[in-house]
Structure formats: structure tokens, C-alpha cells
Amino acid sequence: MVLGTGGTIAGAATAGAGHLDYRAGSVAVGQLLAGLPALQDTTLVAEQVAQVDSKDMGPALWQALAARVAHWLAQPDVRGLVVTHGTDTLEETAWFLQRVLAPQRPVVLTCAMRPATALSPDGPQNLADALAVAAADGAQGVLAVCAGRVHAAADVAKVHPYRLDPFSSGDAGPVALVEDGRVRLLRPWPVGAPTPGLAQRVSQVQAGAWPRVEIVLSHAGADGRLVGELAAQGVRGLVVAGTGNGSVHEALEAALLEAVAAGLPVLRASRCLEGRVLPHGGDRLPAHPLSPVKARIDLQLQALVAS
Ligand code: ASP
Asked: Are 107 and 143 in contact (CB under 8 A)?
């Protein structure tokens, strides 16, 4: 089963002559599959869930995608799923699906850095590799496949705007490699248990009713004014992307502590690309081990369950 959501993998050239002159999400997922050699013993079914540039991804589309993924995973003859996706927010969609569905079968997101109409597109190989992972014995959880590397949803992050392998799993490293169509496992497949009732709660959210959770950045010269303004606008939670081990500028921290005292949930992640925040006994703001964008998803789901 292959679900299409758009991205550069489905991108087609526009009038300009440069590599960046293309429109993401133009080529149908069925057409992307048609370009691959037939697979033995595998029936592929394509479904177009969306056609977006993933920079425009949002909770309504996540909700629709989660529903389709859950639908297909409920079919006993579906061994695994592949989802074509833009690279820009792939790590967020991966984490959302992992948190909401924690699938016991593989849900493999794949992508491309060059559009389908490029001289030498990388999408077809990534798609073939993703299909190999979706069919691999024992594979499970939400995974990302790009440039021959397989990443877990919790670890993967886009760390480069241009190169063909823009993803890193930081200290954890990739879960597996795909070499000439074969999957070489480097560490155990990610495991996770679904939070009872969460998928159902997600499926019930009305359009426009997703809790608003924002990220604020700690940086030299940061102050707390933004926090006050966001709180006044009725945000349901804040993530602070702290420096280093989640440290926060004293002025920003004061404003965040004030917001917490007024009942606003705040999580503290690190703006560092690698590693994770180590919690300490005296922490005044709770630490989150993943990146700020993934912490934001957790806080949004938490606010949803609480509403
Ligand atoms: N902007 C594109 C997207 O995320 C980039 C890509 O797919 O590489 O949809």
C-alpha cells in the first residue's frame, strides 16, 4: 500500500531552468509507482491522500493521513505501508503517526530531494528502498527512508537544505540500511505502544479545533514579551527551544515560569541538532528529550486529550 501526500518526490519542473524551479506535489503517486520495476509476490495499491508541499503540512492533513494509515493497517493482508512525503516536515509527520498509531507493522515515509522530472531523480530509488523496508521481516513502527538509510520517527531530523541525504538520526544513528534492495538491520526496530483512546480522539477533532501550541526560541538577547503575547492569544501550550542542555535566557525563563504559574503547560527542549536534554533535579521547566518540533506535537496531543 502506498499513500501519496506530495513533496518533491512528486515534483514536476516548471518554466525556469534551475533545479529549484519545480512544483512539489504535482505527479500522482500511482505514476511514481508505475516507473518502478514490478515486485514479485507483492500487490501494490496506490492512494492519493493529498498533494502538498510539506512545508504546508498541518494537523488536518495529519488527521486524514492517520485515518487512512489506520484503515489500511486494519486490513490483515497489508504487510506494511509506504507514504510519499516532502522532506521539509517529514520528521513531524513521522512522529505524529508514531505517537498516534504506534504501528506494529512498518509505516515507511519516503521522499526525494530532486523532483520526479529532474535529470537524475532520487525519488525512484528511495521509493524502491521504502518498499523493501515495508516488506522486511520484523519491520515495525514509523520509519523514514532516504538515500539508503532507515531512520526511526523519534530520531530523524532534516539537517541539510539541499544534499541528497538531508536526514540524520543524530547520536542514535539509522535503524537500518538498504543495500541493493536488501535491508541490513543495525539496531532493533522501534517499538511503541499506542496510547489508549488517542487515535480515536484525534479522529474526532473538528476542523480548526486543534489546540494551538507554539515554539519560542531562547537566544542571546531573548526576552519574555512574546510569551505574554502568546498567552494572551490563548495558546494551549508552549515549547521553548533552549540553548545547549535546554537552558533558557533568564528573561525568557521568568516569563515562561509566570505562564506556568497561570496554568499554561511549557516543555523545554534543545535547539541543538544532536543529543537530548538531560533532566536535572532542580529543573523549573520540564525537559523533553526530542526536538522542539516533536515536543510541540506531544504537547498538542496532550492538550487534545485534556480538552
Ligand atoms: N518543499 C518540499 C517538501 O517538503 C521539499 C522536499 O520534498 O524535499 O514538500
From this structure: yes
